[in-house]
């Protein structure tokens, strides 16, 4: 029964429908997907606003202006660290930094929040220094497309999280090892070490600065980008500036309304839905969770939908599930959101979850679906299995193994022939599809999962290790928890990245 094969690297579509497997190369040669008149918004220019302490804002302004310029290739192989031709050259759009779109946080306000002794209160008050200034930009002309929140070193050190301000010794040791490897020319794909978890435990009220700022920005309606002063000053061991420019620019372009690329081998009117759960704030009942759907169509546009609450018992935390009623309500919201965006219902919906689908969940999810819509259900975990390959490198990305009926392994990370290396610090874990309910072949299932690892528009890296439907669960859940039960949410993924 056991059979192995290697799926080819999925292609991406760029300007004029041209294809390439590498996001950076495709953008450099062909430009973004929407740059030649395809369906979608194409920003001619992007207005950037800034909020933060003086030094942090100054560094951030300089960085954004420099993004319109060229960065030389990084160390080592130019495929790993290609040149950055400049934002305007790549995206056919120019970053604008209007003088009026700047709000400097006075030093006295920074010192005031730094002196707050209670950790959660300090994080909460720091977030307010930013969120109370968002509304000012709504009435400005020109109105910003994106607000960059520049975070000073002091704020990062003392106000980023109320649970810990210093890295544990083990993390410091790992950072040192990673810095040595980077200095030697090793590339790391940012999401290769992301863990798949069945339920996300959200922090206590006021715990995380990023989540509180993102939640505040959602109420204002303008996407944000957090930018640390230590990242730009060189105080932290980060990627080469050219690589940082690539990743940062792709995020800015998407948040401003553009589409850097789309999946080339996913048929139209196919919808992928990642269902995740998060435990609500600590002051609420421990056995209460909330369902969230991360919805992506074939264009790559992401929609975030909040579902209903789920009641859990202690022995079910490892595998949360929805009732038939909650699943039915979530399905109705998914179809409505998809139709609003695409003017029609999908022909096929593929549901992803990190635990097995129960019969009542499937019945609920299908209760509001047109009978002509094909459905697939994949339960995905990180496998304990390992495939050994001769030589010093791990198995190739795309290596697949059929373990049994409807059970597969697929390496979303591994040796990448195009890059000529395995760009990761640890032995890679394959994705383990522990159950598949549907008619698609194993080859199609694994090929689509690989495609979805290339749909994270928060980075220009070659791929991530986990499909986007599951990858973003932590970020979405932490922001959702800050919004409150009745607060309206923005469905666009732009507000969560």
What does this protein look like?
The chain folds into two domains: 32-163 and 206-255, 3-Layer(aba) Sandwich (Rossmann fold); 265-495, Nucleotidyltransferase, domain 5, CATH 3.30.420. The protein is built from 16 helices and 18 strands. It has helices at 23-30, 54-66, 87-91, 107-114, 119-131, 134-138, 153-159, 169-183, 209-220, 229-233, 241-255, 324-342, 359-366, 442-452, 468-471, 473-483; strands at 3-6, 12-13, 19-20, 45-52, 94-96, 102-104, 146-151, 200-201, 224-228, 262-263, 270-279, 288-297, 302-311, 348-353, 374-382, 399-404, 407-410, 431-437. Strands 1, 8, 11, 12, 13, 14, 15, 16, 17 and 18 form a ten-stranded mixed sheet that branches. Strands 4, 5, 6, 7 and 9 form a five-stranded parallel sheet that branches. Helix 5 (119-131) runs parallel beside helix 9 and helix 12 (324-342) packs parallel to helix 13. The longest helix is centred in the C-terminal third of the chain and has 19 residues, at 324-342. The two termini are 41 Å apart. Mean pLDDT is 83; it is low at 35-40, 166-172 and 187-193.
Count of all domains: 2
CATH topology of the largest domain: Nucleotidyltransferase, domain 5
* Name given to the CATH homologous superfamily of the largest domain: Ribonuclease H-like superfamily/Ribonuclease H
Average per-residue pLDDT, rounded, comes to: 83
Descriptive key words:
20% strand, alpha/beta, Nucleotidyltransferase, domain 5, Rossmann fold, 497 residues, globular
What's this entry about, in short?
With 497 residues, this protein is an alpha/beta fold. It has 2 domains: 32-163 and 206-255, 3-Layer(aba) Sandwich (Rossmann fold), CATH 3.40.50; 265-495, 2-Layer Sandwich (Nucleotidyltransferase, domain 5). The chain contains 16 helices and 18 strands.
């Amino acid at each position: 029964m056991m059979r192995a094969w290697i799926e080819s690297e999925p292609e991406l579509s760029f300007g004029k429908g041209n294809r390439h497997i590498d996001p950076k190369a495709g953008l450099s040669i062909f430009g973004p997907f929407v740059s030649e008149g395809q369906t979608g918004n194409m920003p001619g220019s992007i207005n950037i606003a800034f909020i933060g302490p003086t030094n942090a804002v100054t560094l951030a302004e300089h960085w954004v202006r420099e993004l319109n310029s060229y960065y030389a290739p990084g160390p080592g192989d130019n495929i790993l660290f290609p040149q950055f031709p400049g934002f305007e050259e790549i995206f056919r759009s120019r970053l604008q930094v209007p003088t009026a779109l700047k709000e400097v946080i006075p030093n006295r306000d920074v010192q005031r929040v730094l002196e707050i002794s209670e950790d959660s209160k300090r994080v909460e008050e720091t977030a307010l220094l930013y969120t109370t200034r968002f509304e000012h930009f709504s009435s400005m002309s020109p109105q910003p497309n994106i607000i960059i929140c520049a975070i000073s070193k002091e704020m990062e050190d003392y106000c980023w999280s109320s649970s810990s301000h210093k890295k544990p010794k083990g993390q410091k040791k790992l950072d040192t090892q990673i810095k040595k490897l980077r200095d030697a020319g090793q590339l790391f794909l940012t999401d290769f070490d992301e863990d798949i978890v069945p339920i996300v435990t959200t922090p206590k009220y006021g715990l995380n600065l990023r989540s509180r700022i993102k939640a505040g920005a959602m109420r204002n309606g303008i996407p944000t980008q957090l930018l640390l002063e230590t990242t730009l000053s060189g105080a932290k061991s980060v990627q080469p500036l050219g690589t940082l420019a690539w990743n940062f620019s792709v995020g800015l372009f998407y948040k401003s309304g553009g589409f850097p690329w789309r999946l080339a081998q996913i048929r139209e009117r196919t919808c992928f839905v990642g269902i995740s759960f998060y435990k609500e704030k600590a002051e609420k009942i421990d056995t209460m969770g909330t369902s969230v759907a991360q919805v992506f169509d074939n264009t790559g546009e992401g929609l975030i939908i909040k579902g209903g609450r789920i009641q859990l018992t202690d022995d079910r935390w490892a595998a949360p599930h929805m009732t038939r009623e909650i699943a039915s309500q979530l399905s109705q919201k998914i179809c409505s959101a998809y139709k609003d965006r695409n003017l029609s219902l999908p022909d096929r919906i593929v549901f992803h979850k990190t635990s097995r689908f129960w019969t009542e969940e499937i019945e609920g999810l299908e209760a509001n679906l047109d009978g002509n819509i094909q459905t697939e259900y994949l339960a995905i975990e990180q496998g304990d299995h390992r495939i050994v390959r001769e030589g010093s490198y791990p198995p190739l990305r795309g290596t697949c193994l059929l373990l049994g009926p409807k059970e597969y392994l697929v390496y979303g990370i591994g040796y990448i022939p195009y890059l000529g290396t395995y760009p990761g610090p640890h032995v890679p874990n394959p994705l383990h599809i522990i159950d598949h309910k549907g008619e698609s072949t194993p080859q199609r299932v694994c090929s689509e999962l690989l495609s979805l690892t290339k749909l994270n528009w928060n980075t220009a890296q070659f791929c991530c290790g986990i499909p986007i439907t599951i990858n973003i669960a932590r970020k979405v859940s932490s922001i959702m928890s800050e919004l409150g039960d009745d607060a309206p949410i923005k469905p666009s993924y732009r507000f969560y990245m």
